[in-house]
Amino acid sequence: MMEKAKNSKIEILREKINKIMNEKSEYSGSQLSGTKEVKHIHEIEVLQLELEMQNEELRQAGEQATIDARKYADLYDFAPSGYFTLTNNGVIRVC
Q1: DSSP string of 1-69, one letter each residue
Q2: What is the tens place of the pLDDT at every residue in 50-78?
């Protein structure tokens, strides 16, 4: 089920990238549009856009992880009562 969602997200991402590439393509409508080199350039540009989008998602996820870590550090460090974390086996985890 998660694999389907992942594939769906990838397809949506590819559609967005292709739309962007078609709008910005320097080679669309030119005489070069059918050549092998232009196809390779297009593929490289698409891959570059994919990587830039993934990088942005990773950056945002990193920022969110930092925010969450601060929130839980505050919860544990400044709580009026003691907190501890249990492992799946019910053992108190030492941090």
Answers
A1: -HHHHHHHHHHHHHHHHHHHHHHH-SSTTSGGGGSHHHHHHHHHHHHHHHHHHHHHHHHHHHHHHHHHH
A2: 888 889 999 999 999 999 988 888 777 77
